[in-house]
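Please check this:
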Amino acid sequence: MGKLQYQCTMSLDGFIAGPGGDMSWLAGQVGDEGQSGEVASQVGALLVGNRTFGGDDPNRGTENEGAYGGTWHGPTFVLTHHPPDRPVPDVTFVDDLPRAVAAARAAAGERHVAVLGADVARQCIEAGLLDEILVFIAPVLLGDGVRLFHRPGGATVRLERLDQAHSPGPTRMLLRVLR
């Protein structure tokens, strides 16, 4: 079975989106296209937060719109209490985290479930479900926005570094969530 893996690109000061969910800063920050394709090839399903699903895409209106620069075509599970009125192809809306994770894992088979969105990742961490974090650290400072991980009152989540790689763009880091 694949891992439940939080995947994101983060600014050096710890933000995965700018103020109001702005993702325009990502344009020009993504490194090697082969690296994105390699990550996407290991993914069997997406588990996405509702704000991320309906949010800003730095590639909106281009052929690169969507997850992994527009190359993602597969099952997507959106965690929300407010599904849209009309169905969306290849998207299942689920209002319960354990059911969403189970459905995404079943759809992914042996490949990873990519968790996209800070709030759904936090919920997975708090429920003891998240296996890994794959973060690309971009050489940019945003100063404000959506943090990689935010829990009011604070909390320590222990991580083990499994891998780190440098490239002309973002630095790639793979971490295991210790339970």
In short: DSSP finds five helices and ten strands in the chain.
